[in-house]
Amino acid sequence: MAASAGPEIERLISLLAKLPGLGPRSARRAALALLKRRDQLLNPLSEALADAAARVKTCGVCGSLDTQDPCAVCADPERDASLICVVEEVGALWAMERAGAFRGRYHVLGGLLSALDGVGPEALRIGPLVNRAADEKVREVILALPATVDGQTTAHYLAERLAGTGVAVTMLARGVPVGGELDWLDDGTIAQAMRARRPA
Amino acid sequence: MAASAGPEIERLISLLAKLPGLGPRSARRAALALLKRRDQLLNPLSEALADAAARVKTCGVCGSLDTQDPCAVCADPERDASLICVVEEVGALWAMERAGAFRGRYHVLGGLLSALDGVGPEALRIGPLVNRAADEKVREVILALPATVDGQTTAHYLAERLAGTGVAVTMLARGVPVGGELDWLDDGTIAQAMRARRPA
Lengths: 200, 200
Hints:
The structure is a homodimer.
Chain A lengths: L5 H11 L7 H13 L1 H18 L1 E2 L6 E2 L5 H4 L4 E8 L2 H10 L4 E5 L17 H9 L5 E4 L5 H15 L4 E4 L15 H9 L5
Parallel strand pairs in A: 3-4, 3-5, 5-6
Antiparallel strand pairs in A: 1-2
């Protein structure tokens, strides 16, 4: 990529290029930015990565990432233990937390069922979810899965698996997103918003 | 950003978000990717950063970055010492090297003159360039600066400063880029390509 830059810089660039959102070109720009701002950026990032590698672990209850196990959410007595929100990945859990609209606990599946990618139920954390749902404290499992084919396949499968436990199984509402101009929305969203219309 | 993620992850995200090309949202995705792929990504990146911090330095001759000083280009006896290509930043030097169209030496200015940003000649490596150009071995200084207002202001200033040294001062050609469809080109480029037209 940069014949004259030496193997250390090459290696840094090729690792940065593996991050989602960075291609080869932006990885080079990022490497340069790091090398130009050593004290403000390169050294702190190097330390933050070592710190994270040493201290962040997977929560044994919900599958989230935290420095404590059980994680802060699972350990928080103020969070409603009767509600479990099922998410695909930790990124979705963080998005839910930012929205601040949920005060229960989570369960991270670790992916979605996918016939195309060959992901079966055994590859996901479904057994532990069913066990958690069987606890008599749990009233409701909310499936916060993406509105994609794999997301919906997974939601239907989970609903069936959870049917025996007696908990209520719900899913996020579908409709027009906040700020969503009808002009720019896809037909599927408009059709779902129409079907799920409610009194104004 | 992610209330439940703990300060280590927060710090990692906020440092990643400072990289060019990564915003807060993609920095979160990058942090998750790192935490999920510790052995393939997180640990190697952490080491690569520490390595780069320890070993990469600025070349005392041309201002490029390398693990050796003078850098590999300045130290290479096969590179033509009579040609100096002036670039804004190391990123532009790397782009020139990838193009493989230049076998001389470089000079990294470290920025461009900018009235708006208050960058004057004293902030750039102009004195060292004039000194290098005064060496009798040097025949030509090629200004490979961006085709922007600041790039052209800097090019004119450098041409004046170098006038006394007797070297030829040239700049990159302007015209239609490879693959450039006229439909998508800006008017300025088309006008310059027309003015600089040549026999087919």
